[in-house]
Fold this sequence. Notes:
- It contains 9 helices and no strands.
- With 213 residues, it is mainly alpha-helical.
- Helix 4 packs across helix 5 (98-115) and helix 5 (98-115) packs antiparallel against helix 9 (197-210).
Amino acid sequence: MDTEKTTPKRRRGRPPKDKKDYNETREALIRAGLESLTEKGFVSSSIDDVLKKEKIPKGSYYHYFASKEEFGKELVDRYIDYFANMLKKHLDDSSLPPLERLESFVNTAASGVKRHNFKRGCLIGNLGQEMSSIPESFRVRLQKGFELWQSLVAGCLEEARREGMICADADCTKLAEIFWTGWEGAVMRTKVDQSEAPLFDYFHFFTRCISNK
């Protein structure tokens, strides 16, 4: 038997000592990667910077991710899930009227961009602006992310419609799509203006447009 053909080549760098160390290091890379992509986007993010931040040898990186593209797709999936959970926390709060739940989300998001000194944007929005420069494999993930977030907002708007807070003939699915289209622009503007005001301005404009009052 030809061992050179049947024995896989060992990857460079020091392998993880055990499963716990492997998982902890992988999660540290993901956290650092999310921070980098929300600030810089995919093209400008450097694997070297992520590794340096977490003090991980460059050769060890390939024990966790096969390529920058695979790393990026994992980050997209994590961010979509993280953001969906944050949305659900606000939009499922039955102690508040539907539109106040959406406003609660806006307040939390505004606090977040201010806390990070207006350097971080929406990871999905950042990558959407880079579609001509990033792998095509990201497109489906970005679309599914928007669709998930839109479905959550559409459900909240549907409650508002049933309660007479917005127009009775409102297409809540389309309104949710419009909400996210405008929201991504408002998030980008916070970085330009160094202010959370664009988020509040957009939300108040959106709710005035759909209000039944």
